[in-house]
Amino acid sequence: MIELAVLDIAGTTVEEHGAVYRALEEAVRAAGGAPAAADIQRWMGADKREAITALLTGSPAPDAVEAAFADFRARLSAAYAARPPAPLPGVPEAIATLRAAGVKVALTTGFDRDVTTALLAAVGWEHGVLDAVVCVDDVTSGRPAPYMIFRAMEATGVHDVGRVLTAGDTVRDLQAGTNAGARIVAGVLTGGQDAVTLGTARHTHLLPSVADIPALLSPH
Question: Which residues lie across from 188 on neighbouring strands?
Fold first, then answer.
């Protein structure tokens, strides 16, 4: 029944040790913002430029946002160099199992294309592992808008949202899946938000990990 699995990257399929949100907070603070932990959590899964704009006080000028975004990317690159990201346990096997069963697998992310390309290269997923990768700069709006999911459907030739599964570790991932009308909208507990937080958003399943998706889809 499911033809396409659309999965988030950081915290969902890739363990990056929370570097993205530390880098985001540090860049915003360096630019004069003072985000609380709850503010950072609220923007998990979002377009990082949009997050920076919202987290900076007042109405920041576009140049200030771009400077903070460049600082964020530099901090994130340094963090990844110091502690490289890696696939979460069982996820490469789950992706291979899904694809072997005829389910296409696409990744979506709030990162731009340059950051995403470097991240996927670091975990060895540049070639032959995935059917599509959609970045936030491929669409007009990031999560909770459903556009990255629709772009993944377009890229993989899947026409029916009733045959799409989405999975992610943030409330925004679940909101995007629900807004897309996906058949299965799964929250996973491998990232920065717990079951109580994820449970506040509409969903069909909460799973320990993406590694549990093949069993979810297998006939019982």
Answer: 207
How sure is the predictor about 220, in pLDDT bands with cuts at 50, 70 and 90?
A: low
pLDDT, position 41? 87
What per-residue confidence (pLDDT) applies to 135? 96
Domain 19-82, CATH among 1.25.40, 1.10.10, 1.10.150, 1.10.3470: 1.10.150
Which SS3 state, helix, strand or coil, does residue 107 take? strand
Q: Is 179 helix (H, G, I), strand (E, B) or coil?
A: helix
Task: Indicate the CATH number of 4-16+88-217 among 3.50.50.60, 3.40.50.150, 3.30.420.240, 3.40.50.1000.
Answer: 3.40.50.1000
